[in-house]
Here is the input.
Amino acid sequence: MRYADVSYWLETAGDLTPRPPLDGSIEADVAILGAGYTGLWTAYALLEAEPSLRVLVIERDIAGYGASGRNGGWCSSDAGASLGLLMRRFGRERARAAQLALYAAVDDVGRVADVEGIDAQFRKGGQLHVARGEAQVPVLRAAHDEFVRAGFEDRYALLDRAALAERIKIRDGAAAMYTPECAVLQPGTLARGLALAVERRGARVVEQTEVTGWEAGAEPVVRTTRGDVRCDTLVLAGEAYLSQLPGMRRALLPVYSLIVLTEPISDEQWRAVGWEQHECVASMRLTVDYLSRTADGRILVGGRGAPYAFASRMTEKLSHHAPTHAMLRAMLSEWFPALRGVRFTHAWGGAVGIPRDFIPSIHFDRRTGIAGAHGYTGHGVAFANLAGRALAGLITGRHTELSALPFVGHRSRKWEVEPLRWIGVRGVQVGLARVDAHRAHSRRPARRTLVERVAQH
Here is the structure.
């Protein structure tokens, strides 16, 4: 495989030569499955806390190959679960603590990139959730109300049509919610830079080494195609890819999020659009869209659309679902008529891991030696930083305020068995797409549908 073809982010992230694979059985204090953000942030935090630890990171491909090198470039303070859901499940104060921790995680990503000399192109321009058309305005206001109820009204501002247009000129932009708590970055260079940073701190990263299974216990064993790893603690950090391993097939639902990228936009075109602050932008569509502006003047458009594959199968073919990529290209001119005819240069995709209740999990069982974090629902860039620091505290016994977050120790129930899983998920995907299509042609607020209530998070 030519790893530079995976995404624009990896193509422009520098040397992608694979590190040597594992060359036989070995022992480690901590073995980490996956060299994406979760695994690398965990290794980084562990070695900050205890530099003498023998930390081994095991990667099937190369660092940043998965979602860490394919995402939309958002470093967002959102969790996969809405703040409203967290308040309902865990109470207002614990939900507030979780949200405050996520604000801090966004800043910590930028801080570490600066300290380690990683050219992640980190720019904290904030985030705009946009109501495109009157039908999306009630949903936007409901989201704002959740932050107000939690006491964060100073961090979230409602913008009317005119105030939104001063920031960015979006067709049918009826209103927006702005928060400064979000950054845009180059995710590929961040992942690759973190891998180098943990190596400088003493970790060993082995690539092109596939994990085939593991055994829990007082001394866990990781089985790979290149040898066994005996360790004190095993950290499962594969996110959506964990769903492909024995015993984890119903833990997460792999759903593909796809992206298209334009050529660099001319100065004249940028003047027609605005967007000078580099905010991350999304509408209130149920099927998800997200846009960002790259450091080299391109526009990234991402969204869901690729159908869920029976039995949670994951293939590169789903990363290149042509109808979804076509829909995303059309979306650009729908949002910005002035950019009609702009050429697209790249298209890719990747899977996000969705837990049954949409709430991420961070866990460590000292009896079995198994730790891990997963279930980010596409919001893992900042959350993985938080998870890595929380896991390091749990593993080393140095409990911090992160140890009390509602994500820690949380366990989502399993997804349904097949074919019920496929029937349910495809039904929701089709239903949400129909609601979005109806609202796009409606000028009136719509009532909440049954499929929306089923998919609520």
